[in-house]
Amino acid sequence: MARQFRAAGHEIVTLTEKADLAVVNTCAVTNEAAADSRAKIRQIGRAGVNEIVVTGCWATLQPQQANDLPNVLRVIPNEHKDGLVSGLLNLPSESFDLEPIAREPLPGLHHRTRAFIKVQDGCDNRCTFCVTTIARGDGRSRPVAEVLLDVQAALQGGSKEIVLTGVHLGSWGQEFGHHLRDLITAILRETDVPRLRLSSLEPWDLSAEFFALWDASSGSARRLMPHLHLPLQSGCAATLKRMARKTTPQSFRELVSAARAAIPEVAVTTDIIAGFPGETDEEFAESLAFVHEMDFAGGHVFTYSPRPGTGAARLREQVKPALRKKRNHILHDALEESAKSYRQKFVGQTMSVLWESTSEMGEWGWRMEGLTENYLRVTAMAPSPRWNEINEIRLNNEGEAGKLCGTLK
Ligand code: SF4
């Protein structure tokens, strides 16, 4: 959208106060995300922006509420999001098709070293907690050629890491008889991307065969980052069934051990929901034991919140909010503990880090922060800023907030 506004002669500004118009892309994945979206719109209105355009999942699900917020000019549902800029500016949508795709960095402090490229949208599954699929519609994939153009443009713009994203990334290509591994193979073959990372992958979309992409004997495998984010949601078979997830603890266990056998030191991270309707003490205990067993390299715990229109919101046995929170803390601590022991394995090793931020520390030089290939957050000092460089770093010890402290080689 920013690119299209620019192509039409508009300027993207850093400070809200300087904007004539703001576009807010809302989220509805949890009640909290929806509340944050509303707070953001109000905050932008208070900062003096008189024309706010609201889009994204929350706006699609609650268009009237979105429209009633101060200074909202228009609400654009997800299905018309692609034409948001052309519609607002009264331009034919084809006017952007011929524009060269240039990825200039957006102004502001948060420079992007990693480019997030969306290759897929929507989902054909109906997990009973998920509102995203209602808000986004059925799954659809972008063709390989279009994704390649985007990857090339991001690389020309200086990005060192490409992250492939999608609402249901693992289903990419299924409507035209392809699999995500075909897209990955094409990107590694057709581009010089130094680092290619995959975002969240539903476990049932993968098989042991998929991990052959990381086969060390293929020259390009090292450019594919050893990191898999596999949402588990629950480690209890009965809960998973009520969630309508197409996975079981047993199939998840087999998948993770196949991944670990094929990709040395792979980071397997996850998402878990705490307090899904009907989750008894026994189910929770089973889930927690499975989380311990999987030894995840990290993850997120979401406290269950009923989303209107979903199957789970209609289930009668809703877990009390206080208990959901308590289970969240317990799961969070379990993930923290396994994440810590995963990090500890790399203390004393040398790893390559892409620096995402640098800040000047006076006579001490520059403090840099970035990610290793297997998604460990690392900080180090350097005599000059090295933003967007990939350096070899020796990892010395664990610092604050789960970051490893390292020294430049
Ligand atoms: S697979 Fe993912 S996006 Fe699709 S319904 Fe389930 S949680 Fe939602």
Descriptive tags:
409 residues; alpha/beta; 5-stranded mixed β-barrel; 4-stranded mixed beta sheet; 12 helices; globular; binds iron/sulfur cluster
Write the topology of this structure.
Blueprint: H1 2-7, E1 21-26, H2 31-46, E2 51-56, H3 57-61, H4 63-68, E3 72-75, H5 84-88, E4 114-121, H6 132-136, E5 140-141, H7 144-156, E6 161-166, H8 180-190, E7 195-198, E8 227-229, H9 237-242, H10 249-262, E9 267-274, H11 281-294, E10 298-303, H12 321-344, E11 350-360, E12 366-372, E13 377-382, E14 390-398, E15 404-408
Parallel strand pairs: 1-2, 2-3, 4-6, 6-7, 8-9, 9-10, 13-15
Antiparallel strand pairs: 4-5, 11-12, 11-14, 12-13, 14-15
Helix pairs in contact: 7-8, 11-12
The structure holds iron/sulfur cluster.
Residues 123, 125-127, 130, 132-133, 167-168, 202 line the site of iron/sulfur cluster.
* Small-molecule binders: iron/sulfur cluster
Order of helices and strands: HEHEHHEHEHEHEHEEHHEHEHEEEEE
Which ranges are low-confidence, i.e. pLDDT below 50, for 5 or more consecutive residues? 98-103
Helix/strand/pairing category: alpha/beta
Measured by DSSP, the beta-strand proportion falls in 15-25%
* Helix fraction bin: 25-40%
Largest sheet: 5 strands, mixed, barrel
**Rg to the nearest angstrom?**
22 Å
Query: Treating each run of at least 4 consecutive H or I residues as one helix, how many helices?
Result: 12
Q: N- to C-terminal separation? A: 40 Å
Strand order of the largest sheet: 11-12-13-15-14
| Beta-strand segment tally | 15
Could you say which overall geometry the principal axes of the C-alpha atoms support? globular
Average per-residue pLDDT, rounded, comes to: 91
